[in-house]
Structures are given as C-alpha cells and as structure tokens.
From TrEMBL:
Descriptive protein name: AraC family transcriptional regulator
Stored PROSITE patterns: HTH_ARAC_FAMILY_1, HTH_ARAC_FAMILY_2
Keyword terms of this UniProt record: DNA-binding, Transcription, Transcription regulation
Source organism, top-level taxon: Bacteria
CDD domains: PAS
MF terms in GO: DNA-binding transcription factor activity; sequence-specific DNA binding
Annotated HTH araC/xylS-type domain residues: 148-246
Amino acid sequence: MDFSLPAPLSPGLLIDHGFFRGDLLFDHVADTVFFLKDTQGRYTAVNQTLVQRCGFEHKSELIGKTAEQVFPLPLGSGYSQQDQRVLQGGPAINAQLELHLYGNRKPGWCLTWKVAITDAQGRIVGLAGLSRDIQQPMGSTNEAAAVSRAIEHVARHLDSPLPLEELAALAGLSVFQLDQRIRGLFGVTAGQYVIQARIERACDLLRHSRDPISEIALSCGYADQASFTRQFRKSVGLTPSAYRGMRP
C-alpha cells in the first residue's frame, strides 16, 4: 500500500491559461464532487455534480463563489476554514470523513481530499479537491459523526500516542467496532490507519519543511528517530533522508 501523499500539484500555468479541465473528467461521476479554487477559496472550476448539489444548473453560477456562499451552515463555513488551512501551507486533506450534500440535497457522509496547487516557483496559487460519497452503510448519523470525531482527533494529535482504546471511547464504540468501521471506510485496521496518518504527515513535512528528521519524528508521534526511520522504511520503502532527497 502506498502511504505517501502526492506532492503539491504544479499546474498553475495550465490553470492560468484555461488548459486544465479536470472538471470535464468528473462531470458524469455522480458520486464524486470535483473542484479547483483560487487563493481566496473561490471556485474556479467545478464538475456538474457539485453544481447540482448546490442547487444550480450551470457552472457559471458557482464560479467565483466560496463554499460559505453556496453551502448551508455549518457545512459551508467548515469547508472554507478547511480551505484556508491548506491554502496557508498546512497539510493536505487526505480521505477526511465529513458531511456533504448528496444529490437529494440531504446531508450524507463522504471522504474528502484537498491538495495545494503551486506555480513553477513553488508559490501556492490555489487548491484542488474532490469528495466521494461513502458507499458502505455507516449505521446511525450519530455513530458516523462519532467515527468522524475519532478520525479528526487522529489528524490533530499525531504527535501523541493515540491508543485505540482512547479513540474508541471518543467514538462511543468498542475497539472492535471502531476497527470495523475504519476498515470498511479505508480498507485498513484502526491501528494501520493511525500509522498511515503519521507517515503521510511525515512525508508532507519531509517535502515541505527543513525541520530536522529527529523533530519530524517527534511531531509525528515517534519517541525517537530510530523507531521513526524503521516504520518509515517499512511503509514507504525508503529512509526519511532518502525520501527527502527526492524533493525537487
């Protein structure tokens, strides 16, 4: 399994000249929302699925607006805050479980990805993202929200131990139940999901910061550089220093 996040996209020139039409690829994918946004979080490209879910008929009605302007509260404000974290150089959003609007305009659960778009000089010029509807049944809405809280807790506390018992308690589930829900969503056990999240954050820091590897190890929840290096090599196939050396 590939645990590394993709490097920030660099199609700034393509977007500036109108050649990047990823929206056309996703126009007929009914369970997936696709979008590009500028540095202010305004839509610059969207697929037809997103247009319909926001209650519009034409893409032009959505272009230039922010998520806060087209989604009901609190969804819209949450998406806009998430956008700004990515646009300000924060970590990419990778398979985050969250509420979205389904085709019937009712809230439903999805997995969301967002990555920064950079120009040739490495400056952030926007973001690209997609949200895919969850096909597996999630049980009650309260249960799905609880699993979402546990996943968000992992993302916000990667420098901490994160025992599975603590995550299960946060979700109001047994460890077995939490493991089953996460396995259904991501295809890995809860323990593997935590490792994946740590390694993905490490990849992001190795690519985009000059922090010493020992500091990256601590910020990703590893007690020392040696244990971090062992897990990183096992997951990625390279040592952290070798992975960093691949950075353009």
